[in-house]
Amino acid sequence: MLMSRTLTSLVRTVPRSTKSRAAAVTQPLFHISQNKDEQQRQHSTQVPDFSKYKKHSSGEASRTFSYMMIGTTGLLTAASAQATVSDFLANMSASADVLALAKAEVDLNSIPEGKNVTIKWRGKPVFIRHRTTAEIADANQVNVQELRDPQTDAERVKEPEWLVMLGVCTHLGCVPIGEAGDYGGWYCPCHGSHYDISGRIRKGPAPLNLEIPEYAINDSLLIIG
Ligand code: FES
Predict the structure, then answer these.
(1) Residue 191 a catalytic site member
(2) Catalyzes what (predicted)?
């Protein structure tokens, strides 16, 4: 009996002491964990103080400054674009020596009737023929319909006594010889093309008449180009 009372008291006391010890151990740990959670929650929700970085000037001043910067950038860009375009146009425009070569002037009084003169214009030969009355009549009596490149003489001259044309064979670009060939005009020895006294192709492989350049005659001055 005594023995069983003793066991019962042991059984009762042991859990009581174990519970109290567990409570003594776990209660502070729970507090620590709770404090940490609280600290983390506070830390994550706390907004830093940015007041010392805050701008103290008014919004109006900022807007004015922005407008000024945009305006200045636009002006600089426009000035730069204008300078670039000006330089480009200056480079693209013809220089004085090129413009001088663009036109050629010939005093027609210096060319006797029945004679040829060849000048160089834009790197190409130009034939100028002071035709005789017989040559003009010869050029006009041709049946244009029979020509490979049909053109009347009147279509090829501004004044009948002056024939002005490029001295470049329309076959492969050789320079024909004057006062030669079967038609009393020009002959290209490269492949045997014959041009008449109006510079029209009459025989040989050349497909077209000799080309007439842009020109004008002012009194006795011939201006080519
Ligand atoms: S280049 Fe003149 S005939 Fe061929």
Answers:
(1) yes
(2) a quinol + 2 Fe(III)-[cytochrome c](out) = a quinone + 2 Fe(II)-[cytochrome c](out) + 2 H(+)(out)
